[in-house]
Amino acid sequence: MGSTEALGTGVEAAGEPEDGRTAAEQARRARQAPPVERAEPTVRGPRRFLLQDLGQTDFGLRRFKLRPQEARSGLEEAGRSFLSGFNALISRRTETIEDFREDLRGFAFEGAGMAAAVLDLVTLTGGRHVRELLNGPAARYPHLVHVGIGWGYARMRARPMWGIKTAHPLLRWLAHDGYGFHQGFFATDATVGAQRRPRTMSRAHRALVDQGLGRMLWFHECAGPDDVAARIAEFPPGRRADLWSGVGLASTYAGQCDAEGLAALAAHAAADGCRAHLAQGGVFACSARIRSGIVPPHTAEAAPVLCGVEVDEAASWADESLAALGESPASHDDYQAWRAGIRRAWARGDKTRPDV
């Protein structure tokens, strides 16, 4: 997810964080405190019917893979942060997201993006809530907000990006990613078991949805590399590259897997002919983390394994690939060219490959 000035409102060049620390230094200093306890907000009026129950993220309830408690609790906490961010915006308390643990704020702003989209679609405001979120508290999380917008469309059973005119011209394609995650999370039997795809979308758009479904599989299989690979192997070969891209993004951004497990994940992707796609997803995650100014230890650990370089350099590949598209990239072809450019950058720059 590139972060150059070309991305427009609220998006600056990745480069060095404002305080001058490198990504590695940020990782070492990332907060390790427990997450902030979040009480359910009290909301009056019609908005109260939109509030979400945080219990929806329980892996047992969702019938997800149950692995060692640390991995499960970490991923479930990411899900609760997402729903807490949703509730924060619905209750007009978006500023409370700043009280969340640093590495969880991105998930919370993703949830806020979903809430903003739902409100805009229900009230037909043309994107006012999305604009206010992007220009305000979520200015450093534009990628996550656009993914969250896709959740909103999926919840409203609408096709992205009808009705919201304030999304970023290029990042708006991330809404399809969010759509795919939502469908995998809440309609798992149909989307994962039966492998159904949105019938109202073109084949090209379905590929973007599959990236989001791949992200969801990291949660569905509770960050188990072997289980993720086995699940992807059940899908038709033509869908696997995008699924692996989503896995690369989730494993780098959400974590919950050690270096040995990540190496196994990379080996599985390589055996499936999708190693570059796994790396591309990891680069997207590095770019989003750099953009936020918060690089947690698990992202710093994942980058060298999945991308072959440190977080800062991986994020720069997203910037360089975006710049190569020229002025004002906005089309689906531009978005796919951005991803392809990142894969080429990885092929040239992965320092862990024996042929580099």
Automatic annotation (TrEMBL):
Composition bias, Basic and acidic residues: 18-28
Region Disordered, residue ranges: 1-42
Q: Would you say which domain of life the source belongs to?
A: Bacteria
Stored InterPro entries? DUF1702 (IPR012964)
Report the protein name in the record. Answer: DUF1702 family protein
Q: Which organism is it from?
A: Sinosporangium album
